[in-house]
Recover the amino acids of this structure.
C-alpha cells in the first residue's frame, strides 16, 4: 500500500475499521470509530459501508451490488448494531433491508439491491467525466495533514479539479469535481470502499454558504455500475446542488475511476442550517 502522507500512520485502514464489526446473535455490532466521525456522528458513507459489510458477512456470497437507498435517522455514535433481513430472492436478484440502531434508537435504515448479469441488446454510456487536469498538478480541496481538524476527512486526500470551493459565493454554480483517494483502504471489500468513498465530500450547496454552518444528509440513493478495481487509486467525484431552499438541498453525484470509467451515480437530500 502506498504511503500517502506523513500523518497516515496515525489512522487505521478502512479494512481494519470494518474488521471491528463482530457478530452478536443475528446482528453485527461495532463501537462507532471516532476517526471516521463528522461531529457527533459517523459521516454517512461510513454508516453505509458498515451496513453493507454487516450484510455481506451475514448472507455470504451475493450477486453484484446494483443499488442502495439510505435514510439517516439519528446520530451514528456509541455502540452500533446492524441487522440485514432478506426481503426477496429471485433467480438473479436479491433484496435486503438493513437497520442500524444504538442505545438511543434508530440510526439508519437501508435497502440493498443485488442482481446478476444478464444478456442484453441494450448498452450505452453517457456518463462522460469532465475534462480536468491530473490530480498531481492540483491543490488540495481542503486542509490536510497535521493542521487539519480531527475527523473522517483525515482518511482521504482530495484535489479540486473543477468548480467552486466551500464558501465561494461568487462561484457560478454550487458544484465541484474533486479527485479523491483513501490514505489507506487496506484490503477492504471493493463495494464497502465504494460506499465509504462516494459520500466523503461535503454537500455541494456549501459552495454558496455565506458562512460555515451545520449540515445533515437525510437520504442517499446510490446506483452502482461497477466496484472500484484499485482502492488506492485516485477517483473523480462530482457533486452538484440542483436546487436549494427552505433549509434543504437536492444534489446529484457521480463517481468515476482514474481511467474515466463510471462506478456509481447518486442523489442526496441534505438539511442545511444556514
Amino acid at each position: 500500500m502506498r504511503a500517502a502522507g506523513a500523518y497516515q500512520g496515525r489512522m487505521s485502514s478502512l479494512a481494519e475499521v470494518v474488521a471491528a464489526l463482530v457478530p452478536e446473535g443475528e446482528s453485527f455490532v461495532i463501537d462507532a470509530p471516532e476517526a471516521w466521525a463528522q461531529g457527533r456522528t459517523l459521516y454517512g458513507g461510513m454508516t453505509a459501508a458498515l451496513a453493507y459489510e454487516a450484510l455481506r458477512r451475514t448472507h455470504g456470497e451475493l450477486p453484484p451490488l446494483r443499488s442502495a437507498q439510505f435514510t439517516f435517522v439519528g446520530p451514528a455514535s456509541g455502540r452500533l448494531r446492524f441487522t440485514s433481513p432478506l426481503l426477496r430472492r429471485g433467480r438473479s436478484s436479491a433484496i435486503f433491508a438493513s437497520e442500524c440502531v444504538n442505545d438511543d434508537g434508530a440510526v439508519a435504515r437501508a435497502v440493498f439491491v443485488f442482481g446478476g448479469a444478464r444478456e442484453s441488446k441494450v448498452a450505452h454510456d453517457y456518463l462522460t467525466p469532465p475534462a480536468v487536469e491530473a490530480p498531481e498538478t492540483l491543490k488540495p480541496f481542503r486542509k490536510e495533514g497535521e493542521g487539519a481538524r480531527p475527523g473522517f476527512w483525515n482518511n482521504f486526500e482530495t484535489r479540486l479539479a473543477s468548480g467552486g470551493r466551500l464558501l465561494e459565493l461568487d462561484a457560478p454554480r454550487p458544484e465541484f469535481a474533486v479527485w479523491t483517494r483513501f490514505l489507506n483502504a487496506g484490503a477492504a471489500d471493493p463495494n464497502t470502499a465504494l460506499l465509504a468513498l462516494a459520500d466523503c465530500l461535503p454537500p455541494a450547496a456549501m459552495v454558496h454558504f455565506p458562512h460555515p454552518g451545520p449540515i445533515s444528509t437525510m437520504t442517499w440513493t446510490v446506483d452502482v455500475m461497477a466496484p472500484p478495481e484499485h482502492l488506492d487509486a485516485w477517483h473523480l467525484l462530482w457533486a452538484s446542488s440542483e436546487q436549494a431552499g427552505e433549509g434543504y438541498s437536492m444534489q446529484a453525484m457521480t463517481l468515476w475511476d482514474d481511467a474515466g470509467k463510471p462506478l456509481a451515480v447518486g442523489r442526496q437530500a441534505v438539511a442545511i442550517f444556514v
